[in-house]
Every structure is written in structure tokens, then in C-alpha cells.
Amino acid sequence: MADLKVTHLTAEYRRGLLGTNVARPRISWRLASGRQGTAQTAYRIQTASGEGNFDAPLWDSGRRESDASVLVPYDGPGLSSCTRYSYRVKAWDNFGRESEWSEPSWWETAFYDSKEWKAQWITPSSEFIDPQAEPAFLLRKPFTLTGAEIASARIYATAAGVYELYLNGKKVGDDELAPGWTSYRRRHAYQTYDVSAQLRKGDNAIGVMVANGWYKGRLGWENKSDHYGVRRAVLVQLHVRYADGTEEIMGSDPTWGASTGAIRFSEIYDGETYDARMERNGWSEPGFDDSSWGVAERLELPLAHLVAQENVSTRVTQTLKPQAVIVTPNGDTLLDMGQNMVGRIRFRVTAPEGTVIKLTHAEVLDKEGNFYMGNIRTAKQSVTYIAKGEGTETYAPHFTFQGFRYVKVEGYPDQERGLPPEAFAGEVIHSDMERTGAFECSDEMVNQLQRNIVWGQRGNFLDVPTDCPQRDERLGWTGDAQVFAGTALFNYNGGPFFTKWLRDLKADQLADGQVPFVVPNILRGYSSAAWGDAATVIPWALYTSLGDKRILAEQYDSMKGWVDFIRSQGDAEHIWDTGFHFGDWLALDAKEGNYMGATPNHMVTAAYYALSARIVRDAAGVLGFEEDAAYYGALAERIAAAYRDEFITPNGRVAARTQTAHVLALFFGLAEPRHRARIARDLNEMIVENDYHLTTGFVGTPYLCFALSDNGYHETAVKLLLQKTYPSWLYSVSKGATTIWEHWDGIKPDGSFWSDDMNSFNHYAYGAVGEWMYRKIAGLSPDAEYPGYKKIRIEPDFAGGRLSHARATYESMYGKVEAGWAFRGGRIEVEAVVPANAAASILLRGADADEVRASVKDEGIWSITQEAEGVRVETGSGRYAFAFARSDSSYRTYSPDMRLSEIVQWDTAKRVLDRHAPGFTGRLNHFAGLPLEAAANSPMGPAISIEQYEAIARELSRIRE
User: Fold this and answer.
1) Are the C-beta atoms of residues 288 and 114 closer than 8 Å to each other?
2) Which of 80, 88, 79, 82 is nearest to 106 (CA)?
3) pLDDT (tens digit, 9 = 90+) per residue, 217-272?
4) In b/e form, how buried is each residue of 342-380, taking b as 16+ CB within 10 angstroms?
5) pLDDT tens for residues 363-415?
6) Would you state the pLDDT for residue 857?
7) Taking every annotated instance into account, which residue ranges of this chain make up the domain Alpha-L-rhamnosidase six-hairpin glycosidase (predicted)?
8) Catalytic residue among 267, 393, 742, 771
9) pLDDT at 117 over 90
């Protein structure tokens, strides 16, 4: 028994899953062990109905000889609707230990059949309230419970619109903007709420408040509303179970009362108007006088496509305090939240009745320091509150969200004397995903970049992966989502989030395989390369990152459909040369006035065609579809051959001299092996000639540093990351950005703006570099052959940069994974943490196997072998530390805080030093003890510049090779 424990039980990624219609929920767990090299050899799962009477389990797997501990499907009798199931797990390991039973966890089902809905869709009667009225609708129903003691109670609810549910005067749950945004015509989510503690014997009342939201509200930049329907409605069903085993069900119907209240206007883009004088105090409590209210009427909306909520809920996840109160040159009074955030402002005020307070939200100030709304386009992003004049009043909008850092405040009492910042708070709202990843290194600007990437994800992962959260757009652009998916899945567990969104993608996909530009689809556009490829790229990313095989099975027809659609286009079977494509969107090599980069669209379409065909091949292999695997594998090879014939000369020259064209040939594996070195060299030269600046757009940027690092130019990739002048990732950081920008020069060096038309300051696509930072700098990656971090690749590349340390952590399904390295003295230290029931392959670049063998004695180490790049260490679980001297191959490695005596071997390199830095060696005694940057900038005269050092390091490396 000893110290082997089973912990962290989840069903469908969640602890305590309330309300699911998954027929066979998948169970995951972790092993906790104090012994290195721990691996599970067998498990046993028990499931019981209710709170967990495991003496008579519903299902007992028995002991199963298996190392599986992630997403193991329930395999017992069919589940019933509206039922709680408890489960527990025990495990055996390779040391012969048997754990105790874990603490039990649970999931609870919702409805498996739409016929179980007894409630009716209802909306206020048109005889009493205009269906197109702007105020939010209020619907209420008093009821009396006369049965025995209440054992449990659940409400199942949704809306055609967005809603809040109230019971006996209090809001139910902490969800925001429920039911979220799905492809409503085919898939409409409902929520499950545990209201056992809010009900009471005797008189009760339910209230629902509903506004337009995504269902009926204005979406897109064409000023169109009513995308899914012209009337708001709600659907509510209450189930009460009594201690004596009886049950009572009641649902929404035309007997409900209807009115409007204090919310006079509410739209996603435009904000909310709240007149506190029109509050209906007690409207969701029993005993409220609703004699002046109208009644509801039934609305014929379908029940068949209702699905239990799949995504995690949207919630308030953090509260920020204003960092400053600013009065602009134009005289506006602003709150500076210190962070470009997404959510809302909550404030309190004591004011006379009728006082009008208006908040307007924006991301940036202009170069004069004035409030700037130009990039918001037609979105109003304003909130208006009208005070009722009764003591201290508190308010935050209900059915809208804003993207902002700055808030212009108008009408607050005595505002001219200064706003009280303590009266305001910013509530951050997004899908409440589990945070899984963290990255940090020795460069604080890069650390800020990582924070910006995370904040960009938080702001734009609000039930759908939106492009931006502030202007009149906020749509689920497929291209943005697919390029960022790898980074997203490091930062957060996106299993439920992407599962829900991919089901919407499949629902909105056309019968011939075309994929819309945005999901859910409210536009007319379909099937651009790199955008439609979200259908293949994201399911595969979920599989490799989380080990989710079921998502491949669910989406497989969609994945095939996309590739088959491409193949059906045009006359050239293997080069997609028809239709509209966004190309290398927003690349800097675009022609004046054009958003599309200079890389020919057909190069982009063919590259992604090959990528998606390979992904379908690999997915078919995982799922056991051997014929499909062979078919799509052969197709991918023919596409790559056609690409080479069309776009790469016999001498290995890429047809278009753009960075992105070379990146695609390298990263997508389209170039023949004999040509890769030349293409990589050409790419490197283009970047060096451009003074280490990039010119790539949405297609090239995510893969640029990978293409360099994987082909011998990691040093250049690091230089690109650390570049601070425009265009670069750190340029926006140098301008004070706290999220990722849509344009490399959203704010120009002189403080002016790129454009009003399309200039979001919270647009995550270029944050895709985060995946490279995790994988290449820290060196942390899942192994696709053992997905979900069952086997981990830890291969940090510390060569060629000015970083002295880096570290990444990731909360995998197996437990925490860590990879870190640092230069200390003349040695490199590498640390790794591998969770129980997982393994790792660790590459120590530049190390000597004999030195490594002599320094480690850990029982979890399986093998140590010398490779061309360094030492490969294969391990089981545990915490490992390695320290080794730099070998010849690591001479390109340096850090600004290293001492010169640590990085140059003077006796063997004097000739090289004299050629590159004449006279330097004569001053060795003074400079050898100084850090590199200090020596380069010494008041006694320059010792050696970083550029000189790099030249020396390259030549020393060549000599030793």
C-alpha cells in the first residue's frame, strides 16, 4: 500500500460534472507516488448510483491489467437521465503496490431524450409586450411545494437569447451569458442547476430575465440582427425529489407572468442601459404582486436539438482594481485598469434619483493621451446607469461584455473633484477553463509577452474562440483558432471548450465539406485555406495534447469531408487553385492597400491541403481505419510532390522569395530532404538581411521560429523573439501592450495608429509563438506517438540566445510536468519533473554521456545514450536534475550576465579572438571577470561586442567540429 495513491478524479475533464448527456463518460485520475519510475499496471473502477453505496456497485470493472488512467470510458449498464453517479478508483503499480480506494467523485446526467422535456418555450404575450421591445424580459412563476422533506432539486434551463435564473429572490448559480453561443439551429445548449438549498417547503417563486445576446442581437459589421430568431424565449424545467422517493416536475408554460424591468437595453456590442427606478423589487420572490403583469405565450421552438452544456461555464474569474484615475487633455475623466481586459465594471454610488452615469470602454489612448474609440468601429461599448436615489447602489451589467483597459466615466456625483477609484472594480469574464501551463525565462519582456498571450486567450475564449472582444465583430474565426490552438492548449485545458466548438463547426459545415470562415456561422463565407483547416488541425491538437481519441472519432467525418472538398475543387487535383482565400493575412510584405501577403495563395492552399491530408491519415491510423490511412497517406504524398513541382526549383529555390513561402516548405515537410538546408539558409538570410525582423502574417508567423529552430537556426529564432523594434513580438511590449495586437504596428513608433478599420489590441493570433516558447526554449512537448503527455519530450535548446534560464510547467492529465534549464558558472543545469504513470525522453544538448552517467543515480532513469546533438536520457516518473559542462557544440550559447572567462577558452582561441576583436586578448585580465554586457560597455573601453562574440563562437564551433 505504502505511498501509492489515486487522486484528481475527473469525468469528461471535470470534477463534479453536473448535467451531462454523454452516454459513456470518460474517467481520468492521477497517481501520487513518492517513488521514481512509478507506472500503473492495473486499475479498478467502481460506479454506484446516488451518493456512493459501493457495497452494491452499478458497475465494477474488476481488476484490469492496463496502464490507462486518462479518459477511460465508463463501461457499465446504460445510464438514466437526471441521475447522480458516484465513482472511485484504485490502482496497482510496477513495484507491486496496491493503492487504497480513492476518495469518490461524481457526475450527474441531464436528459438523454428530448421527450423528457415537459416544459414549453415561452415568451411574453405579444398582446402585452412588443416582441421587438428593447428592454430585457422578466418571466416569473410562483409555486407551492407541499410534499415531504426536499431531498434534492434541479432546474434545467436555457433561452433563445441570454438569461439569468432566479429562485426566491436570489440568482441561481454563477454562470454569465448563459446558455452561451452555439449553432442554435442545430445545437442549443441548456444548463443544469442544483437548487436544493434554495428551495423551501411551501411558497416559492422562479424568475428568469432574458435579453437578446447572440441569438437575436446585432452580430457582425453589417448591422444585422435576428440571425437565429426574431423573438426571445426561455425554457425552464424544475425537478424536485422528496425524501420519501416521490418526484414533482414543473416547467415553463403560458401560466407564467411577464413584464419588463430595469434593463431597458442590452446588446453584446453596444452595452446596457439600466434604470434602477424601474426595478421590480421582489419580482422573483413568492408573494410579489404581479397583478399588473401580462402573461406568457408558447413559442414553437424545437426541443430535439437541445444538448446538455458541454463547455465549462463563463464566469467572473478575477477582479481588478483601477490603477489610476486620469484626466485627459480633452478633459475626460478615465479609469485606467492597468490591463486590457474583457468583462465589465461593477461600481457603487450614492446619488440623487435620476442621476445618469455613463461608462464608455476603450483599449488605448491616442498619442496625445486622449480617449480613443476609433478602432471599436460601430460598437458602442457603453453602459448607462440611472440611479434610483436610495442609499448606496451597486450595479454591473448583466448581458454584455466589453474589451477595454480605459473607462470614460461621465455623470458620477462630484466627478470634478476626482473619482473615488475604490468605488469601481473590473470583473474579468471568460470561459472558466483550468489553467495548465506557465512559461518564464530570464528576459522580463519575454515574460510580459507570455502574460499578454495568456490575457489575450482569456479575453477571447468567451464560450467561442473569438478574434477580438471589443469591436463590432467578436466572431469565432476558424483561422485564428487553428493557428493558436497549440498555444491555447498549453496555457489552459481546452478539452471541453474546443469539444463544444468543434461540434458547432461540424454542425455548420456544408454537406460537401466546406467549412465556414466563422463558427458559429453568421457570415456568408466558406472554405479558405488555413481557416477551414481548423476542422483537422484542432482535433489533432486535442488528441496529442490531451490524449482525446473520442474527439477524433467524433470529428472524423468532418475532417475527411474538408479534405475531400479540397480535392474536388478545380482541375488540378493536388494544387487547390480555385476560390477565395485569406492567404498570409496581414503579412507585412503585402502590396499597399492589401491585407493579403505577397506569398502566392496557391502556395498556402497546397501547403494546408498537404497538412490536412496527413492529419486525416494519422487520425485514420489512430482509429483503426487502415484503408483510409493508406488512401490519405498516398494523397498527402502526391500533394507534396505536386507542391515541389510547382513551387520549388530542381536546385531547391522556393518560387516566392517571402519568409512565409520558405516557412511553409520547411515546417509543412514539403521540401525534399536534399533541399531543406538551402531553403533554411535562404530563410535565415532573408531575416538577417532584414536586420532580424519578420514580415510574416497569420499563416507564416506561427511556424516561423519552428522552421528556423528545426533546421539549424535556433539562434536566429531567438533573436527574432528578443527583437524589440518594429516589427517584432516585443515591439508591442515596448509600447506598453498587455495583450497581443492584431497588427504588428497597431500603434506606430510615433504614437499614431495603423488604421481605424481593423486594429484590435486584443487579437491572439500572433500569440501562437507561445507554443514555440514552450516547446523549443523550455523544451516541453507531448510525444504524438504517446499522446496526452503519456510520454513527454523534454528537449530544451539553450543555444544561440541571450537567455540565461527558462522554465515551463504544465498540468497534464497525469500530473504536473516541468522542464527548466539555467546557466550557472561554466555549466548547464537541466531539471525535469515527470508525473507518475508517464515517461520522458530528455535531450541534454552538448552533454557528454560519461559525465551524465557519473552524475545521476536515480532509479527512474532507464537509459543514457550519446547522440549527435548530445545525450538522450529515457526516464520514468520522478524529479531529475542534470548538470554538465558545455561541449564544443554549445559554444554558441551565452547570456549577458555570463562572465567572459566562462564562455571563451582563451588559450585555444587567441587567433580567432585577435581576428574578430583586435587587441581584446591583451586586456583579458581586466575584462575576464566582467559579465558580457558590462565588458561590452565598460568605461575603460569596449572589450567585445555581442556581435563580435557571436562571430567568435561560430568560428570556434566550426574549428571543433
Assistant:
1) no
2) 88
3) 999 998 999 999 999 999 999 999 999 999 999 999 999 999 999 999 999 999 99
4) bbbbbbebebeeebebbbbbbbbbbeeeebbbebbbebb
5) 999 999 999 999 999 999 999 999 999 999 999 999 999 999 999 999 999 99
6) 78
7) 434-777
8) 742
9) yes
C-alpha gyration radius of the chain: 30
Catalytic residue among 164, 363, 440, 473: 473
Please, are residues 615 and 540 in contact by the beta-carbon 8 Å criterion?
yes
Residue 3 has pLDDT above 50, yes or no: yes
User: CA nearest 14: which of 303, 539, 431, 340?
Assistant: 431
Cell of 132: 421587438
Chain centroid, CA 788 distance in Å: 17
Cα–Cα distance for residue pair 594/904, rounded to 1 Å? 49
Q: Within 10 A of 431 (CB to CB), how many other CB atoms are there?
A: 25
Please state, as a whole number, how many other Cβ atoms lie within 10 Å of the Cβ of residue 250.
16
Q: In this structure, what C-alpha cell is assigned to residue 157?
A: 434551463
C-alpha 71, offset from chain centre: 21
Helix (H, G, I), strand (E, B) or coil at 193: strand
**Per-residue pLDDT tens digits for 871-929:** 999 999 999 999 998 654 443 444 444 444 444 443 444 455 555 666 555 544 444 44
The predicted structure's pLDDT at residue 898:
43
CA atoms of 534 and 539, how far apart (whole Å): 8
Q: How far apart are the first and last CA of the chain?
A: 53
Q: Count of residues for the chain?
A: 961
Structure confidence at residue 912 (pLDDT): 54
Q: What is the pLDDT, as a whole number, of residue 416?
A: 87
- Indicate the burial class of 319 (C-beta count within 10 angstroms; 0-12, 13-18, 19 or more): exposed
Is 103 among the residues known to form the active site?
Answer: no
- pLDDT higher than 80, residue 116: yes
Which residues, including other chains, have CB under 8 Å from residue 22's CB and lie 6 or more apart? 12
DSSP secondary structure letter of residue 614: H
Give the chain's domains with CATH numbers. Answer: 5-109 (2.60.40.10), 114-268+275-308 (2.60.120.260), 314-431 (2.60.120.260), 442-776 (1.50.10.10), 779-890 (2.60.420.10), 900-960 (no CATH)
CA distance 232 to 132: 9
